[in-house]
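Inverse folding, one chain.
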């Protein structure tokens, strides 16, 4: 059950898709939440470029999914597996990305409270790894999420792109990448480049429909 605090915070947050305000992962937009426990939350994302677009985030103020405490690693990896399976069964495939150590608030504040490590999930989208390579000085390949995240933890900055559960690419030594880098690449790959920035095209009603659909399909 969602707490009264979360509901109150939601009304004052940017959960309505309006630019500005605080961190949407601190004040959860509860009607977009598909699953949550004390450590992680899976929610439909605003600006859905594709059906099923969603985020899997850590609820603590942790800079990236590679920086989470050791005791949360198993839960992180298990949740990614369950979410990926749910989305793949619905849409046939699912691309997972993370722009590591990127603030999630909209006001430019870079204090630690603005960090929540999170994966972006793009069902039905083909691999964008080749398009990403020219933006980085290094790319490392792994066959498991845990190995990829262990490597990412050693990088100053990184981007993760995973087209399937057996392939995880970690890009590091960035050259010049935009804030919503993987959304830009996905948007370009599906012919929706003008909709890359979610604040410009929040499409909240579509996000609500995605949340409802995935809640009904989740069996765990």
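Residues assigned per position:
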């Amino acid at each position: 059950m969602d707490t009264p605090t979360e509901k109150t915070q939601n009304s004052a947050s940017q959960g309505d898709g309006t630019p500005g305000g605080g961190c949407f992962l601190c004040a959860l937009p509860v009607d977009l939440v598909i699953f949550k426990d004390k450590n992680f939350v899976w929610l439909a994302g605003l600006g859905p470029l594709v059906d099923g677009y969603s985020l899997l985030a850590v609820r603590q103020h942790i800079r990236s999914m590679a920086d989470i405490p050791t005791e949360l690693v198993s839960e992180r990896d298990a949740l990614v597996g369950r979410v990926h399976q749910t989305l793949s069964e619905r849409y046939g495939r699912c691309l997972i990305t993370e722009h590591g150590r990127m603030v999630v608030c909209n006001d430019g504040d870079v204090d630690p409270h603005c960090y929540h490590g999170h994966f972006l999930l793009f069902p039905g989208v083909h691999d964008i790894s080749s398009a990403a390579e020219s933006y980085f000085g290094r790319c490392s390949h792994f066959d498991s999420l845990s190995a990829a995240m262990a490597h990412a933890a050693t990088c100053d900055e990184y981007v993760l792109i995973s087209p399937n559960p057996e392939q995880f690419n970690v890009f590091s030594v960035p050259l010049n990448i935009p804030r919503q880098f993987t959304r830009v690449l996905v948007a370009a790959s599906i012919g929706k480049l003008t909709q890359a920035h979610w604040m410009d095209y929040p499409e909240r009603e579509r996000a609500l429909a995605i949340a409802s659909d995935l809640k009904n399909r989740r069996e765990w």
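The chain is about 30% helix and 20% strand. The helical segments are 4-12, 70-91, 129-133, 145-152, 181-189, 204-217.
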